[in-house]
Design a protein that fits this description.
Chain lengths: ~240, ~180
């Protein structure tokens, strides 16, 4: 009769693979060096903030919108859309750069469970930020942007245009706000049908909240993994 | 962030060479697609290189344990950089298909195939536990890698062994 197979019987066989693998796997020294040089370059590059394209675009945008708000201080019809744009322009890229930097700086030599928790939480923060930056952006980068753009660049007061407020502004603000739940519902329906387009699928997963649910489920598995063993050892001990 | 080692450091290449089997086995357990697996091993090398300056600070941790921890963290987190476009040349050149190593494993290719299938069925955390056990780590070493207590590891491993034995009985080649 064949003895019962178990993991202990295969432990030696598993480790015996090492000698075969050592022979079959070859480190490509040149490629490894190239990769390290590229990573080293990226790290040096990251230290030079002004070299970052986002910063180059971001700083003038912050300057321009701040200048607009300062010159229109007290004109609430311009200041309110200006402040909304300023909040979006200042807050979103700043948070995004900080989140990316945090993800890059994660120390992979930490114990597995604490690292996985940290990464998943950082990912969740980033998912939330990207989702709401996009959805709120649909409102802010339309009517408020038009008001600020026409006043700032052409000195045109859109409020004085015939029927602007009644026929355009409120309708489009309402449309922008209505877009938020519609985009969420549409991405829920569309996402599962987009397997051939992984990047677009990731975008719809984010809007629909699917990636957030997956992250929460993973964190729950980590919690269960820790708790089950602890409870079991107490029961076994008691 | 600690200062990065110099990219020309040959000691790093030696470290990768010493532990390449661990990188392969972890990548193989977590990633079935051969191309994605090469990217994953490449990402493991990058994270090893980035973490290298902090290794000396860790007293009492074996280098192989430290490498395994990083490899598992990269594999579980599904970390992907912007690499992967150069599919022809990779950091670790693989000169085998997955059955070769199993055939060399004491002539137990069938049993190893069943074991691989069972490992595939596990979730990412239990998979880590089983891989560490198979690699020969004791409970305290596994606890250090995973961030659990040694008693927790022992308890979990006992339960997991029972489940795996039952699954072996279902899947065994002769059964």
């Amino acid at each position: 009769m064949k003895p019962e197979m178990n993991i202990d019987r295969l432990r030696d066989a598993w480790r015996a693979q090492d000698s075969a693998l050592q022979g079959h796997l070859k480190v490509n020294d040149r490629k490894l060096r190239e990769l390290m040089v590229a990573e080293h370059g990226k790290d040096l590059h990251r230290k030079g903030w002004l070299a970052n394209l986002e910063i180059i675009v971001w700083l003038p945008s912050v300057f321009l919108i701040t200048a607009f708000n300062a010159t229109h201080w007290g004109w609430w019809e311009f200041l309110i859309p200006g402040l909304l744009l300023q909040l979006w322009i200042t807050f979103i890229p700043f948070v995004s750069i900080r989140q990316r930097a945090k993800l890059r700086a994660v120390d992979f030599s930490q114990p597995v469970l604490s690292l996985q928790r940290e990464i998943e939480r950082l990912k969740m923060q980033r998912m939330t930020m990207l989702k709401w930056a996009f959805l709120i952006g649909q409102v802010i980068w339309y009517v408020p942007f038009l008001i600020v753009f026409f006043k700032g660049v052409f000195d045109v007061n859109l409020y004085l245009m015939p029927n602007w407020i009644e026929s355009f502004m409120w309708i489009n603000i309402a449309g922008g706000l209505a877009f938020i739940p519609i985009a969420v519902l549409l991405s829920r329906w569309l996402g599962p049908r987009l397997n051939a387009l992984p990047k677009f699928r990731a975008f719809t997963d984010n809007l629909a909240g699917r990636d957030m649910l997956a992250a929460q489920a993973f964190l729950e598995r980590v919690r269960q993994f820790e708790q089950d063993g602890e409870q079991g050892s107490k029961q076994d001990g008691g | 962030m600690p200062p990065l080692p110099h990219p020309d450091d040959t000691a790093f290449a030696a470290l990768v060479d010493t532990h390449k089997a661990i990188l392969y086995k972890v990548a193989h357990a977590y990633c079935r697609d051969p191309h994605a697996r090469r990217d994953l091993m490449q990402e493991m090398c990058i994270q090893l290189w980035r973490a290298l300056p902090s290794f000396d600070a860790e007293r009492g941790v074996k280098q192989s344990t430290w490498v395994t921890r990083i490899a598992m963290n990269v594999a579980i987190s599904g970390w992907r950089g912007e690499r992967g476009k150069d599919a022809h040349e990779t950091v670790l050149d693989i000169d085998l298909d997955e059955t070769v190593a199993a055939e060399d494993a004491g002539g137990r290719a069938d049993d190893m195939a069943v074991l691989r299938r069972i490992i595939d069925e596990l979730d990412e955390l239990n998979k880590a536990l089983v891989l560490l056990y198979l690699e020969g780590h004791d409970a305290s070493e596994i606890a250090a890698v995973l961030g659990l207590s040694a008693t927790n590891v022992t308890t979990r491993m006992t339960r997991l062994k029972q489940k795996l034995t039952a699954r072996f009985a279902e899947l065994e080649p002769d059964s």
